[in-house]
Design goal:
The complex is a heterodimer of chains A (475) and B (65). Chain A is of the alpha/beta class and 475 residues long. Chain A is built from 17 helices and eleven strands. In chain A, a hairpin with a 5-residue loop joins strand 10 and strand 11. In chain A, helix 3 runs antiparallel to helix 4, helix 8 runs antiparallel to helix 17 and helix 10 packs across helix 13. The longest helix of chain A is centred in the first third of the chain and has 19 residues. Classes of the chains: A alpha/beta (475), B mainly alpha (65).
Chain lengths: 475, 65
């Protein structure tokens, strides 16, 4: 195979891994093509904070030498990835998208990095993000805003903004992000990608910058659901270094993709999720349900309990934990935060400890109510991801104003409830709006039901080609 | 929220946290704080005497899909 550089970049992760493994293409060739593309598009997209091109090419050479000797480290051998700049790698600067940590060099490496390394993946650098992972738009006043490859005047979504832009821009084959209120699912959907927020505790948080230890999860953003399954299989599972990580057995998510959705019960919420959804988004989401029906799924209407207050419950936990984590910097360096980020963190100072603990105590009860009302009668819940077309960067650049906080609430309204529950959620691209920006739906499942979500998403992608569309070069 | 309450918030913030709290910051934060506390209070009567945060993770494993 001797594709053009663009053709190499436009393969998906599973395709390029297979091509490298079977020596149809070399890791050096693929990495070089990505680096060339980054040189062209990074000035526009601003998705990288650091780029380690030389190191990546050297690692690609080693990967090719290993292939020549018949050594394949794992399912991601030679595949070029990059990750949100909050996953620590010993000896490498990890800025967390902030001014405060612009020179922070951790002494230890995140378990997710170690697992991807062991699977043979290559690492190209660190990706832009909202400051300290606070922000559903991708704005960053310290490192510059990240821009959407489909239209650079529009947001990427956040906080894993660079992860969304880099994968959608075909600069890397996959990326990890973090999700505390939608920060994997939103940029995935807004950039036309698959994105998975796993069950709380499914993926190790060791070596990852914390925002809210009760709500944070690490998840992949990829070009296809199949790619998502592959990378998730590598990173999921208990980690002795993270005692909060679950000891539940890990599925072979890629092997369980096949099987289709015939007979699967797909729930459609009758409350909350369709409120204030634009006609354009609604039409797209309903079309995706028609595809599922054609594939043999049964569509079932369900009412989701408590969903209108889950945002509030989540806020109490998130802000209390974030204010504690950031306490010393809030005291010593308040002006080194962007105003909106500082305000959202400082809100945690005003929640009494009893209310924080009540919000945590209520989690099993709320989970039980949602399981009984929803997942006793459906296998997955299907819902819009973003209620509106993707907004512009300038119209959401609102500083520390009340309007900014309202915008934050609006953009993450449909994603935040899932973080309080701790359930898994998968974003799947489902079309485009009138501005040429992606529209997506999300699939929500019971705890540890990632395999079911991935199977449903994969079935949808066997019948549609939204995930195969590639943005025109936004230069 | 009235002026006395706002003043009290400022004083608390200074005394307890040594954090400068601008009035603009308070105006921006208060609606979310108020709404979030209301959400917790709505369900708080369901909390049992023996409930504690550590019950969540094992419960999630019991109800898995």
């Amino acid at each position: 195979m001797s594709g053009t550089a663009d053709e190499l970049c436009e393969m998906d992760m599973v395709e390029v891994a297979e091509a490298i493994r079977t020596r149809k293409v070399s890791a050096v060739e693929v990495t070089g093509a990505c680096i060339q593309r980054i040189e062209r598009l990074q000035p526009t997209l601003n998705c990288f904070i650091s780029i380690e091109a030389e190191e990546a090419l050297k690692a690609a050479e080693r990967a090719d030498e290993e292939v020549a000797r018949g050594v394949i480290r794992g399912p991601l051998h030679g595949v070029l990835l990059a990750h949100k700049d909050m996953l620590y790698r010993a000896g490498k600067v990890t800025t967390c998208g902030s001014k405060i940590r612009k020179d922070f060099v951790p002494s230890y490496t995140a378990t997710v990095h170690a697992r991807l390394d062991a699977a043979g993946a290559l690492n190209l650098g660190t990706l832009n993000m909202s400051e300290f992972a606070f922000g559903p738009t991708g704005h960053n006043g310290h490192w510059g805003h990240c821009r959407n490859p489909w239209n650079p005047d529009h947001i990427t979504g956040g906080s894993s903004s660079g992860s969304g832009a880099a994968v959608a821009g075909r600069l890397v084959y996959g990326a990890l992000g973090s999700d505390t209120g939608g920060s994997v699912r939103l940029p995935a959907g807004i950039c036309g990608l698959a994105g998975l927020k796993p069950t709380q505790g499914r993926v190790s948080r060791y070596g990852v910058m914390p925002l809210s230890f009760s709500l944070d999860q690490i998840g992949p953003l990829t070009r296809s659901v199949r790619d998502c399954a592959r990378i998730f299989s590598v990173i999921a599972g208990h980690d002795p270094k993270d005692p909060t990580s679950s000891t539940m057995p890990v599925d072979d998510y890629e092997a369980r993709l096949s099987g289709g959705v015939r007979g699967m019960r797909i729930g459609v919420p009758t409350n909350f999720f369709y409120e204030d959804v634009s006609d354009e988004v609604r039409a797209c989401i309903e079309e995706s349900l028609r595809v599922f029906r054609e594939l043999g799924a049964e569509i079932v209407k369900v009412q989701v309990p408590h969903v209108d207050i889950l945002d509030g419950l989540s806020n109490v936990i998130m802000a209390s934990e974030a204010a504690t984590i950031h306490g010393n910097w809030l005291r010593a360096r308040p002006d080194d935060y962007q105003p909106q980020v500082r305000q959202r963190i400082m809100a945690g100072l005003f929640y009494p400890a009893t209310k924080y603990l009540e919000a945590l105590d209520l989690r099993p009860k709320v989970v039980a109510d949602v399981i009984d009302a929803v997942f006793a009668s459906v296998d997955v819940l299907h819902a819009p991801l973003l209620p509106c077309p993707v907004p512009r960067i300038d119209e959401t650049d609102l500083g520390g104003s009340s309007e900014a906080h309202a915008a934050v609430g609006s953009l993450s309204r449909l994603t935040r409830p899932l973080n309080y529950l701790g359930f898994p959620g998968l974003t799947v691209p489902a079309g485009f709006d009138g501005n040429g920006l992606p529209i997506a739906f999300q699939l929500l499942g019971r705890p540890y039901a990632e395999a079911t979500l991935l199977r449903a998403g994969h079935a949808y992608q066997t019948a549609t080609d939204w995930h195969r569309r590639v943005p025109d070069h936004p230069e | 929220m009235n002026d006395d309450s706002r003043h009290s918030l400022h004083a608390s913030a200074r005394a307890l946290q040594e954090i400068e709290l601008g009035s603009e910051d308070v105006e921006v934060m208060l609606p979310t704080v108020s709404k979030s506390l209301t959400a917790v209070s709505k369900l708080a009567p369901r909390i049992a005497f023996e409930d504690e945060p550590a019950l969540y993770a094992p419960f999630m494993e019991r109800v898995k899909g």
